[in-house]
Specification:
The protein is α+β, with helices and mostly antiparallel strands and 216 residues long. The chain contains nine helices and ten strands. The radius of gyration is 19 Å and the shape is globular.
Length: 216
């Protein structure tokens, strides 16, 4: 994401040349809105000095995803002071070389992949590959958002028991949820629709008044 069109074009072209999929965002608010609709492996944010006071949006982005975040800025010291390494994984100071950006990007991607267990969860024709964060049904990849993937992985990893809505919120959103836990139903509904449309089977069962469980 960048509000510097020239910088954004250079980075995007370089990533595309390296066979990465790239989605450009207009600004931090735009990025925060689409995080719940699209899964990412890494986020690059190009900040100018005027954007530094929007660090609260970066905080919201970190709450929405655990994926690596790289900040590009003229003032690295100020960024580090405001955002810190709890919110951001790495920083790149302007002017930069695209080689440096690509190198730092690859380091973060490799580190991120090593966090997850190298394993697959297989339920009949449904395969959840946690090492590369992909879901396959009959060897066809299913496009899930990051939250949908995390929900499916957690349910499948605990297929021997019923999971409450409160537990799902706590596990996936990593914070104490103060609203109505039944809002999780909307996410489950979208996830279930994608799976059943492609598999022809209802893998996620509702336990009325309690929560959900995987049907195995």
């Amino acid at each position: 994401m960048s509000n510097d069109k020239k910088s954004k074009n250079v980075i995007s072209k370089s990533l595309l040349d390296q066979q990465y999929e790239v989605l450009e965002c207009q600004d931090l608010k735009h990025l925060s809105k689409i995080l719940d609709k699209k899964a990412f492996d890494l986020i690059i944010i190009d900040l100018d000095e005027d954007c530094l006071n929007e660090w609260t949006i970066a905080l919201n982005i970190r709450k929405a995803t655990e994926k690596p975040i790289i900040i590009i800025s003229n003032d690295i010291e100020e960024c580090q002071k405001l955002l810190g390494y709890q919110l951001v994984n790495d920083f790149v100071k302007k002017p930069y070389s695209i080689e440096e950006v690509l190198c730092r990007l690859q380091v973060q991607l490799n580190t991120s992949k090593n966090i997850f267990c190298m394993e697959q969860i297989v339920l009949e024709n449904l395969v959840i590959d946690t090492s590369i964060r992909k879901v396959l049904i009959d060897n066809r990849e299913i496009d899930l958002t990051e939250k949908e993937f995390e929900l499916l992985k957690f349910l499948a990893s605990n297929s021997d028991r019923v999971i409450t809505r409160e537990e799902l919120v706590q596990e996936i959103w990593k914070e104490k949820y103060k609203g109505n836990p039944r809002t999780i139903d909307t996410h489950i509904k979208k996830l279930r629709k994608k799976i059943e449309k492609n598999s022809g089977k209802a893998y996620i069962s509702t336990v009325w008044g309690y929560g959900y469980r995987m049907i195995v």
